[in-house]
Amino acid sequence: MIEIRNLLIQRNGRAVLKIDSLDIKRGETLAVVGPNGAGKSTLLLALARLLKPMTGEVIFNGKQLARLDDLEYRRRISFVFQDPLLLDMTVEQNIALGLKFRNTPREEFQARVWKWIKQLGIESLAKRRASQLSGGEAQRVSLARAFVLEPELLLLDEPFAALDPPTRVKLLQDLSALLVEDHRTAVFVTHNLNEAAKLSHRVAVIVDGMLRQVGTAKQIKSQPADETVKAFLQELPQ
Amino acid sequence: MLDSEIVQITFLSLQVSAIATIISLLIGLPFGTWLALGDFRGRSFILSIINTGMALPPVVVGLVVAIMLWRSGPLGSLRLIYTPIAIIIAQTVIAAPVVTGLTAAALEALDPRLRQQLLGLGASHGQMVWYLWREARLPLLAALMAGFGSVISEVGASMMVGGNIRGQTRVLTTAIVLETSKGEFGSALALSTLLLVLTYLINLALTWIQQRGHKTDRQSAPRK
Predict the structure, then answer these.
(1) What b/e sequence results for B54-83 when a residue is b if at least 16 CB atoms lie within 10 Å of its CB, and e otherwise?
(2) Quick one: CATH architecture of A2-76+151-235?
(3) pTM for the structure as a whole
(4) pLDDT tens-place string over residues A59-94
(5) CB contact under 8 A, A128 and B220
(6) Contacts of residue B223 in chain A, CB cutoff 8 Å?
């Protein structure tokens, strides 16, 4: 579904991400792990066309992203950031936002919004304003806001990083179930290899702006591709 | 001073300042948004000019606009000097940088990732800007109040380009100056009180709208 070839992204003349080749299959969840500042979020921004690469290409369903209309493409994907970034409106209105952008008929979007409100167990929050929510509740709303769009590609940038451990575990379980049930193609950025193992089919390791290894979490743990990956794995909390 | 004259002066003051504020909003909102969201060479320089413009002395504005509109000036053929339109032009020059600068500051205060989030949810550029304005509506309303406040209270520019002509271009502030110069302190004080009450009522209405939004936010304080 996604093919990345010779991708190079620079910031202030410095290469911040370099990927020679990476494929993501339809229905696959790919976790991207790596230390802080490795270039993981940059990859997501490039996949969302919120950052334009200097060279190389990203192919989406056989078509080069550079040749697709940005808006048309972005309406086929959805992005969840580390912070929920909800707007000052009710939970229900926040979840409906992307559908509104797409001029979805009102009767259809009500049904879709409520389907995902129920899926994420936030019925009691629907009429509440976003600023009234706890961190975990807000991130649930953020997930519902992304899933309601039924995107072809879901991009998740450390969505649970700011949450306390119990909330994180619960949300991770729910997201894992949703991704399995929904067969949604997703790219999930995380610091945590265990989280990556639970959620994803494959894991990509990025260190210092370079894609170092792609494989299952088990393969990466048992056979790190090089010393850099090995060093990264050793630094992870056990 | 006759009651009918006071009514006419008050109405003209409100009309001129309201029109100048609306024009400033039409200029300042898109221009301030462009400055806040843009990433281009010279952006900081333009912002510094706008910020300087926020403190423009009205007499300097009055002088420049008067030179432009003077009969022998570049726009003299339009015959606008000593008309209410000349006052509107001068007041717009005073208020537009205020609205522009405060709009840019309001939007820059938002989380920069909010733009990416809106685009990532499929917003067009126009939809993104609309929702950013919505999120910054309280400081944007403050920008509007500051713009109106800067023109309803100024006297130098109105005097210089309007000429303080009785029944034509006399506004509350220029009338206060005239009454004071004649030693009619009672009239000057009455007009000043009227100006203060009007300014207060308008700002009260805008503050009420602003605080209504703020109150909703406070009532819905984060529940951790």
Answers:
(1) bebebeebbbbbbbbbeeeeebeeeebbbb
(2) 3-Layer(aba) Sandwich (3.40)
(3) 0.88
(4) 999 999 888 999 999 999 999 998 999 999 999 999
(5) yes
(6) 132-134
